[in-house]
Design brief:
- The chain is of the alpha/beta class.
- Helices cover about 40% and strands about 15% of the residues.
- Strand 5, helix 6 and strand 6 form a beta-alpha-beta unit.
- Helix 10 packs across helix 21, helix 11 packs across helix 18 and helix 18 packs across helix 19.
- It is elongated, with a radius of gyration of 26 Å.
Length: about 550
């Protein structure tokens, strides 16, 4: 696999512990010093000049220690600082926190100790500051914040001052992005060593602001000495990645000079019903926009006369009295299925009882890569056992509500841990799962997870998912494997949406706007001209060779 490695909290801690043990017991202080220096430089840069004053709020652990280092470097840069530590002076603190606090005290910096009973001093300090540094929790939170921290976070958020979060906004779960009762609303986040999943997953991504990765000199697993890596088998699972423009561009299929339409695959699309032909058409068109050679739309016989004459081939299917695909249509598909390299099932099918039975029988006959979306997924959710012993290489593209039906869970449960929800579904169905939403998650049955950094809220529009389905199918038809067709398809879909938003804004964007930008997006990715998402560009300060794992 390749991509920018994302580490879980357990992996980060194991890695830090092993690296410190390998180097020297004092190396933790060195890492903290580099992190604090990098974050202080980031704050000064983001403030576009010298901030008059900064309030730094520190917790009791190493995240608070990072905040104390930041305070020292801001002081040396000539910034007025106010330092607040949560708790009493004689409370329990990490050793590295205490060391950096003593250094500050040796520089005659007054440390203010606070709780939620007396926040007037903190509020007054923030009101006179240009910015706030949040160094309360970092990756350390695993339960909802208590009332004390809740009130402190609220005081910071209500100040309307820009906040720099240290590692990730306090109150955000590092692995899931869940808000643990209450969270800092950051203008920017300085994260250290590796990107935290919680910064990329909803709703943590909504409060992180601009994310920058600070290289603190700690190697990622793939660059570790073999002796250390062998002692940390837990670093191999899970394998989470941030998809990048470089990865996607390098995986796109080659197109030979002497190619013909057969070279780029034939896609059979079972979709559409009376009144729902738009979804089917959008998927079929998107297959071609993504580079497929031939798209055959198999749809109820009676709706075909109303479809436009264009590059798509129409194939009539037996239908119900309600204008939906009937079970008898399986016979009509046999010949086409023998010739197709890829199938699509679902867009606009309807939830008609007989059409649901058609889907149940069809998935068991599929022998080629197959993308299932929309009503195809809803049909499977009525009897998930139909996926047992299927032979096709399936890609499911659910939104959270569709995945909740498939998994028998609430949408809230799905959204509370999008990565593991997608992983669980991938295992259960033996399918690659593309969980749509802010920062789409792609999970494979082999435990690889990719987070997609492209896309915007203008893409929350009817037909957008049908375009994604077509793009993935088009890439599969050209020979890409399931994983990379799904990852590249989701990335291209989001990037095309970003192009559309840049041209005409997010308000009023429609699915065809996204589809129309698919070819130029692929062209730019293939030629290495796509600049990457905003998130990728903000993380580009970490060297490429230390963030990718070739393969």
């Amino acid at each position: 696999m390749s991509g920018m490695r994302i580490l879980t909290t357990a992996q980060v801690r194991a890695l830090e512990s092993a690296w410190i043990k390998n180097c020297h017991e004092s190396w933790g202080l060195v890492l903290m010093e580099i992190a604090g220096l990098g974050a202080s430089k980031m704050l000064l840069e983001l403030m576009e000049g010298m901030p008059a004053a900064v309030t730094i709020v520190c917790g009791r652990g190493n995240n608070g220690g990072d905040g104390l280092v930041i305070a020292r470097h801001l002081l040396r840069a000539g910034v007025d600082i106010d330092v607040f530590v949560i708790g009493s002076e004689n409370g329990q603190f990490s050793d590295d926190h205490l060391t950096n606090r003593r250094i500050l005290e040796g520089m005659d910096v007054e440390i203010n100790y606070i709780d939620n009973k007396d926040l007037d001093h903190l509020k007054a300090s923030i009101s006179e500051s240009s910015a706030v540094v949040d160094a309360i929790f970092g990756t350390g939170i695993d339960r909802e914040v208590d009332q004390n921290i809740h009130d402190i976070i609220e005081a910071i958020n209500e100040s309307a001052r820009p906040v720099l979060a240290v590692d990730l906004p306090s109150g955000v779960h590092s692995d899931t992005g869940a808000i643990m009762g209450h969270a800092i609303q950051a203008a920017a986040t300085a994260t250290f060593g590796s990107v935290k999943p919680g910064l990329l997953c909803h709703p943590g991504n909504l409060v992180a602001g601009e994310i920058r990765l600070i290289d603190i000199g700690m190697p990622l697993p793939e660059t570790l000495p073999e002796a250390i890596l062998d002692s940390l088998p837990q670093l191999d699972i899970p394998r989470w990645w941030l998809a990048t423009a470089f990865d996607v561009g390098s995986k796109l299929p080659e197109r030979a000079v002497d190619s013909h339409k057969g070279s780029f695959g034939q896609i059979l699309i079972a979709a559409g019903s009376l009144g729902m032909t738009g979804a089917a058409m959008m998927s079929a068109r998107s297959c071609l926009r993504a580079g497929a050679g031939l798209a055959i739309l198999s749809t109820p016989r009676s709706v075909i006369p109303g479809l436009p004459a264009e590059e798509i081939i129409y194939h009539p299917l037996a239908e119900t009295e309600r204008g939906t695909i009937s079970v008898d249509a399986l016979k009509d598909l046999e010949h086409q299925m023998e010739r197709a390299q890829v199938m699509v099932i679902g867009p606009g099918l309807s939830s008609d009882e007989e059409t649901v039975k058609f889907v149940h029988q069809l998935v068991q006959k599929v022998r080629v890569p197959c993308v299932v979306d929309a009503d195809g997924l809803n049909a499977i959710s009525e009897n998930p056992k139909v996926m047992a012993d299927t032979e096709g290489g399936f890609v499911f593209t659910p939104h959270p509500k569709e995945l909740s039906r498939l998994m028998g869970k609430s949408i809230k449960e799905i959204q509370s841990d999008r990565i593991r929800s997608a992983q669980e579904a991938a295992k259960r169905f033996g399918a690659t799962i593309v969980l749509k939403g802010a920062n789409t998650v792609v999970a494979t049955p082999d435990d690889d997870v990719f987070i997609i950094p492209t896309g915007n809220n203008g893409m929350a529009t009817a037909g957008s998912g049908d375009v994604l389905t077509g793009i993935i199918a088009g890439l599969l038809a050209q020979g890409m494997n399931r994983t990379w067709a799904a990852v590249a398809g989701a990335y291209i879909h989001g990037a095309a949406g970003d192009f559309a938003a840049a041209e005409s804004g997010e308000d009023g964007m429609v699915a065809s706007d996204i589809m129309n930008f698919v070819p130029v997006t692929i062209k730019m990715l293939r030629e290495g001209l796509f600049p990457g998402s905003i998130l990728e560009r903000s993380l580009a300060n970490l060297k490429e060779d230390s963030t990718t794992n070739g393969g």
